[in-house]
Amino acid sequence: MAQPPVEAAESGQGEAPSGIPHEAAPGQPLGQFVPVEGSVPTAPHLAPAPPQSTVLPAAEAPAAVGPVPAPRDGDPEAVQHAEDLDTRAADQEDQEVTAEESTAPVEEARQSTGPAAPAYDDAEREAVLKVMRERRDIRNGFRSDPIPHEVLLRVLEAAHTAPSVGHSQPWDFVVIRSAETRRTMHELAMRQREAYAKSLPKGRAKQFKELKIEAILDTPVNIVVTADPTRGGRHTLGRHTQPQMAPYSAALAVENLWLAARAEGLGVGWVSFFDEREMVRALGLPEHLEVIAYLCVGYVDEFPDEPELMQAGWSKRRPLSWVVHEETYGRRALPGEEPHDLLAETVAQIRPLDAKALGEAWERQKRMTKPAGALGMLEIISAQLSGLSRQCPPPIPEPAAVAIFAGDHGVHAQGVTPWPQEVTAQMVANFLGGGAVCNAFAGQVGAEVCVVDVGVAADLPATPGLLPRKVRAGTSDMTTGPAMSREEAKQAIEVGIETARDLVAAGNKALLTGEMGIANTTASAALISVFTGTDPAEVTGRGTGINDETLARKTEVVRRAIELHQPDPADPVGVLAAIGGFEHAALVGLLLGGASLRTPVILDGVSAGAAALVARAIAPEVLAACIAGHRSAEPGHVAALNKLGLRPLVDLDLRLGEGTGALLALPLVQSTARAMHEVATFDSAGVTEK
Ligand SMILES: Cc1cc2nc3c(=O)[nH]c(=O)nc-3n(C[C@H](O)[C@H](O)[C@H](O)COP(=O)(O)O)c2cc1C
């Protein structure tokens, strides 16, 4: 009997407490993890490639950039002269620039004399950092106490010392105290609040209903911060290529104001629920101004330690290590650290289920007012959710988001499907327009639909809800060469990891897999054949409903690709590169990313099954986060689920993809977690046990 990966409890328990679903006792429901052939691979060579492997081969590596000549004395713009640029280019060709030289300070020639300007002393520095840490956006707990003029003046002076493009100081501050004006503004904000609430998926809307998003009527002073894009004249230094520098400058004034207010014990709440032009008219502002911020200011009962949105479970703080890159985007490293490989870092964070929380969940299920085991497999899922979150009862996995990764396939050229390739892009447009089955199902179960272009063979216009993360416009034909390079496979995995990070940081408590790619069941069949050791004839299916002749051709294509590449399942990234799809690789990343963030991932059909096999080969404990949403009609999916030891929740002969099966399973997963919270226990309800 396969077991979910279980982490020893902190008390030092080596094994899961009894009752943990490792073996179904008589009368107990069957485990989520059904028999797995062979053993879970743990050999070191299955570990993800070390960081060095991401270093580009010499031919691909970007040319090192030599030191930039220092500007000539008295001519600060000299470095921008055309002749200097020419000289630099020539220098670069002539010189062999060593790595050491390339990191040398740009202004090498300048000799520093005397000591550097002094820093603040420790207490002063700590005061500066403290005000930044403890600044909060406040909507609750305002007091009506008036703000003395000298206090407000200090705050506005701080705002007015902000940096600005070309020193244009484009801001103005309109101080509003009138109850009538505030009522007008409040009405405008309430209208926008309603419109926003209507645009939300149900899971989010429920959360949003509880949130206060403004304190316009609760504060004695409101401040409107504007930006004048014409201020500073026609030749404002630094603005001619980037006109948005004027509003950016005004936003910096807002931050200064916010920090100074915090130091004064004043709370500030920024309200952006306005139609900007409507606001200009309502406030009687000159039409050429832009409104940058509407701020509610007043004394408060307290400043919360964490953002109110975090406290409400709306969002999570992203760690600094996610956002600092060394030299090039993607080489993440905090100062003083070696750049780390995103895949290796993610895998290192994946842990088995927590044995203590698992044990508590199982105990609780027994004490709930129902016969033991009466919720069948849902009891197992609730225990898995507890072990994953290390909490009993576990958080209810709501809100949830389905990530639909879309990509095209070079193997389409082999005639494996009657559908033309452009249908992938057309269906992406359909998802974004809300007209697909996944949209209807997502609407019904209250989930967000997030569409990711990881490799569609068409240029997709920027659209809300679409994440443009194209690695390449479709894979190559796996029957004539590798579908993608190893680097591309890793890049697509990283797209999936980053999607998981974004969706979880945005407050989602469950991730669902979805995918779209004409011809992608061919790649799924090939992956499943390799990882399960099953003959292509047994795992290649009819996909969208192909006839016997096409099925025979498709099976032959899978066989030929495998014979050509001889993929080694001990090298999962290599297998993906040889015969996978960009969406499969991204799904692998989503699973690993979700598991590393201890967030449940509900798997959809055959492509998700194929991706889960790859993910398991990279990090066996990824299964701790995986829940099989449904069993698809594709034969390969059954083989994949058996190999993974996952039992599907829904079995309705679906074969659509798009995350539809996972979406149908979502309410089951949410229901079991909710039952853990809401169902009384025998002791609490005074019900006699048998
Ligand atoms: C540009 C901007 C617009 C914002 N608009 C709103 C808003 O309309 N309503 C609201 O409740 N909070 C708004 N906020 C506050 C953010 O929700 C808040 O800054 C964030 O949750 C982090 O919390 P903290 O500021 O307490 O650290 C806004 C913040 C910024 C920077």
Automatic annotation (TrEMBL):
EC number(s) given by UniProt: 2.4.2.21
Basic and acidic residues: bias regions: 72-91
GO BP annotations listed: cobalamin biosynthetic process
SUPFAM superfamilies recorded: FMN-dependent nitroreductase-like, Nicotinate mononucleotide:5,6-dimethylbenzimidazole phosphoribosyltransferase (CobT)
Coiled-coil residues: none
Alphabetic keyword roster: Cobalamin biosynthesis, Glycosyltransferase, Transferase
Active site, per annotation: E658 (proton acceptor)
Region (Disordered): 1-123
Enzyme kind, highest EC tier: transferase
Gene Ontology MF, one: nicotinate-nucleotide-dimethylbenzimidazole phosphoribosyltransferase activity
HAMAP family: CobT
Protein name stated in the entry: Nicotinate-nucleotide--dimethylbenzimidazole phosphoribosyltransferase
Naturally occurring in which organism (per UniProt): Streptomyces viridochromogenes Tue57
This protein's encoding gene: cobT
